[in-house]
Write a structure and sequence with these properties.
Length: about 350
């Protein structure tokens, strides 16, 4: 076993605190990784505070991991000691169902194993995530990091990046399309960058006029203030696709009205309480679609990393030491981050 230091929540109403635990000794197909950076996702907060009522305590969050390979099993062929690699939201799946066969491990029909708060395949032990100094992962779920600079800003791509890339790719966003991105947070700011890099005309949809200038800096060519009835009315039927990144319950009908005939709005934000049900007439009269999307498979995540490296896309981040994680959660709830916290795991050295 490998001794590991990290931070964990021990109940939903307690702050995260230092936590010592053990990882498995690498098997023949395993990769042992020294974690350099880990992004802070809203899902981390939901899980640490048991807001989805499914947390296995103690919980070590973190699934936006960039690190350096420290050891490999004797059957590992894809990676070598010293490689810079990434680990996202999934560390195992059944590998034999229809979805896994198509490279869609996130939809594994037997249930994928989450990087944290998941049961290992065939076992009952809790998985511990990236708020730690190391991790051991099967080589099939480790990703090559093609970026050579600003590795801390690459970390959020392992969740926020693939969460926005996958639906944009699946619904074939590209040149000649007008795409709305709802919300300019950890997900939305990457959605703007990636949709623009795909060649679409991007429109930011936000409740905050103060975010318009930043949306334009990131690549949005226009903006709609969703609380302004005149702007919303003027934009009706103007968008081919909407990527909705907001993780709080809100009225979907007003946004659906912005779509053209046959347009789709895809939800990627995961609120702790449901959205109000949309009016069916918002859908049937223009043959609009309301869809959802969950992260991405391993092959697509590698494709996303390569695409972002090619186009110079990384997350806008604020680096923090692990000792500030509880403060970061509170700031995240207030939207006080531009646009993703990333933990420098070197800060664990003093624990």
């Amino acid at each position: 076993m490998i001794k590991t230091r990290g931070y964990a929540a021990h109940s939903g109403d307690q702050p995260l605190q230092p936590f010592n635990f053990e990882r498995r000794t690498p098997g023949p197909g395993d990769v042992q990784i020294d974690i350099l950076y880990c992004g802070v996702c809203h899902s981390d907060l939901h899980t640490a505070r048991n807001e989805w009522n499914n947390t296995l305590f103690p919980s070590v969050p973190g699934h936006e991991i960039v690190g350096r390979v420290a050891a490999v099993g004797n059957a590992v062929e894809k990676f070598a000691v010293g490689d810079i690699v990434g680990v996202g939201c999934i560390i195992d799946s059944c590998q034999h169902c229809g979805s896994c066969a198509e490279g869609l491990e996130q939809y594994c029909e037997n249930g994928f194993v989450g990087t944290y708060n998941g049961h290992s395949m065939g076992g009952g032990e809790n998985t511990y995530g990236g708020y730690a100094n190391n991790i051991v992962v099967r080589q099939e779920f480790v990703l090559k990091v093609p970026h050579t600079e600003n590795l801390a800003a690459v970390a959020p791509l392992l969740c926020a990046g693939i969460t926005t890339y996958s639906p944009l790719r699946h619904w074939k966003v590209g040149p000649g399309q007008k795409v709305g991105v709802v919300g300019l947070g950890g997900l939305g700011h990457l959605g703007v960058k990636i949709a623009r890099a795909m060649g679409a005309e991007v429109v930011l949809i936000t409740t905050s006029p103060a975010k318009v200038a930043d949306g334009q800096r990131l690549g949005a060519e226009g903006a709609i203030i969703s609380t302004d009835a005149e702007q919303m009315a003027a934009a009706r039927g103007s968008l081919d696709f909407i990527l909705n990144t907001v993780a709080a319950p809100h009225n979907l009908d007003a946004l659906l009205a912005l779509l053209k005939r046959d347009g789709t709005m895809t939800l990627v934000g995961a609120p702790s309480e449901p959205h109000p049900s949309p009016d069916v007439f918002s859908l049937i009269f223009k043959r609009r679609s309301l869809a959802g999307s969950l992260i991405g498979g391993i092959q697509e995540t590698q494709e996303m990393l390569d695409f972002c490296a090619e186009h110079g896309i990384v997350s806008d981040i604020e680096m923090i030491p692990i000792q500030q994680i509880n403060e970061a959660y509170e700031r995240m709830l207030k939207g006080d981050v531009r646009y993703r916290f990333v933990i420098d795991m070197d800060s664990l050295q003093g624990e």
